[in-house]
Request: fold
Amino acid sequence: MSRLRIRGRRRDAGAVATIVAILLAGGVLLGMTALVVDIGQLYAEREELQSGADAAAMAVALDCAQRGDVTRGNECLAAASTVPGYADRNARDGDSAIVRVCGSDSRLAPCSSVPGGSLADCIGTIPAGATYVEVRTKTETNGGDYIYPASFAQTLVDGYSGTTVGACSRVGWGSPGVGVALTFCLTEWNDATGSGGNLAPAPPAVPAGSYEVVLRTKSPGGGKGGGPADPCEKKKSGADLPGDFGWTDTPDAATCQTLISSAGMYDVDPGNDVVKSCEAVFVAARTNRTPIIVPIYNEATGTGSKGVYRLEGFAAFVITGWGNLFPGVKDADSTLTSKSAKSLCPSGDVCVFGYFTNALLPWSGGFSSTTNYGATVIKTIG
Reply:
C-alpha cells in the first residue's frame, strides 16, 4: 500500500512539472507575474501620491483658513510654490509632480477648468457652505519623466513603457453646523471682542487676563422676570430669558451638542435639566484649554421653556471656569486669572468664565453658511 502511495505522489509531481513547463513555454506564468508585480507597484505609487496630495491639501487649507493671520495668509497666496515639498516628502523616491492647486478661496486658482472623469479625481461632492482647496498629484521620476515605468510588462507587450498615476485630495473649511448646548448673545460677543476686533489668541498661546469675561444667566437685573436686561431679547410680559448665556433645548445626551438649522430658530432650555455630558465636556475643555463651539443668538422671544433663539453664527470660546453652573458640581476657579469662582460669581448667580478666540478645529460634522464669529472647522472632504 505504501509503495502505491509513493508512486501516486511521484506521478502527481510529474504532472505538475509538465503543467508548469507548458505554462512557462506559453508565457502564461511570466505574464501573470508581470501583471501582479506591475499592478502592485502602481498601487504603491498611487498610495504615495495620495498621501502627498492629502498632506499638501491640508497644509494649504490650514494656511488659508487662519483668519486674521497675515503670515498664513501669504502662505495661502503662495500655495502653488510651497506644496511640492509636502508631496515629495511622501514619495519613496522623493519625487512627485503637482498637477494643480486650486480651490474656492479667492486667493487660489479656480478649479472650474480642471478636467474630470478619471480615477484620479477627488471623490464625493463639495458640501454646501464649505470653502475648499484641491491638490492633484501625479508620477514624477528622478529623471523628470511623468511615466511610471513597468518592471516586466514592457518585455511582454511591444510599445508599453508604463503609465502615469495620479491622485487628488480636497480639504474644506468653514462655519460648523453644530455647537454645544451653551449659547451666547451677540451683544455679549461684541462687547467682549470689540465686535470681533479684539479676539484673544488661540491656544496654546495664553492671553492676558483682560480677555476673560464673566457671563451670567438667572442673575438679578433689569428683566421683568428677574433676569438681566438683555439687548438681544425681545421682552414679553414676565420674560426671563438669559441675558448673557443660556442653554439650548434637547442636546445630544452623549456629546452635549445641538444641531441647529443655519437660518433657523432654536428652543430654549431653562438649564435645570442640562444633560450630564455637558459637565464632562466642560471639565475636559477647561482642563485641556480646548475651544468649544458655541451658537451665537441675536434675538430671543418667549418665556422660560417656551422661548426661542435666532441663530446668527458660531463662536469659539475657551472655558476658564464657572460658578453655580451644574447642580451638585464643584465650582471651578479661573485657570487664566486664578480668581476664585466665588469672587467672580456671587451666590444666586449662574456664571461661566472664559474668553472668545479665533480657533481652527478638526471636524467630522457638516458645514453651515452662518456668520463666522471665530469658530472655523476643517476636514478632508474628497
Observations:
- The chain has two domains: 13-171, 177-380.
- The chain has nine helices and 18 strands.
